[in-house]
Amino acid sequence: MKLFFKKIGGVLIVFLVLTFLLSIGSLWSLRKSSFYKPSFLVNAVETSKFDYIILGASTGLTTLDTKQIDSILELTGINLSMDDTGIPSQYLMLKHFLAEGKTTRYCIIAPGVSSYNAQNEKLSDNDYRFLMFTNRDYVHDYYKGFEDTEAKILSYSKHAPFIGVSFYNAELFYPSLLTLLQPDKRNRFDNKGNYTYPVFQRNNDSIRFEKELKLAFRSPYLAKIKTLCDQNNIQLICYISPMEGTKVNITNSNYKSIDHSQIIKNKKYFYDKDHVNSLGRIQASKAFAQILKEVMTLETYVNKNGD
User: Strands 275-276 and 270-272, how do they pair?
Assistant: First the structure.
């Protein structure tokens, strides 16, 4: 009987060691790749000084095209937005950006519009994409700041990586095998961080803006982003993406904002009610570039004249 338990114990130890090594290897492969935005920023973005960066969810990812904006204004920008994320994730991305020694003049935040009012903020669905950097204090502290089960799993993974890799196996383990063969492969974004939704045949109808959303910018993590921007001499701009049928009423003047909720007035430019398609992205990016140019011109004038 003792021999039986010794064999079982030996098998269990071998299994745990292999699991630990596979988990370490998976995170190493992802950390050295460009597959997810956090590792893309570390491994594939050689520029250290930017005129602007875009942080956001799928709205920021698909609405503002940094290639188009750069070509219009002759600037250098990058889109660091990630789908299915909230303002807490965008705060973590800004920390990650600064930790890499990179700088920017403007930080454009473009989350799902309702996120601006969220006060009980939670871990986002895709926050596991920072797990390969969990040994960095700002990432681990971020995970520890939430109470839900997923956050605890990600937090514990600093010392026991197999917990997170096992739980997010489809999102971490299988992509890590792919990145061993294709370390430069990106997960649905181009070399400037952009992605776009396709154009479907929709009715060529004008949009009636019958719904109103009041924005008070109550998000605690938005306040953290502003503080971080102020500390690093970065101007924060809150971007409100185009929406199909919803107009915005801003009730808080403490944040500089660009309201493009009603800028697109035809359904053919939308993929769904909250996201523009490729045609809408062209319209929104062009309009945004014009506003950013005005902001930069005014700031230059004020700095020069001291008014």
Answer: antiparallel
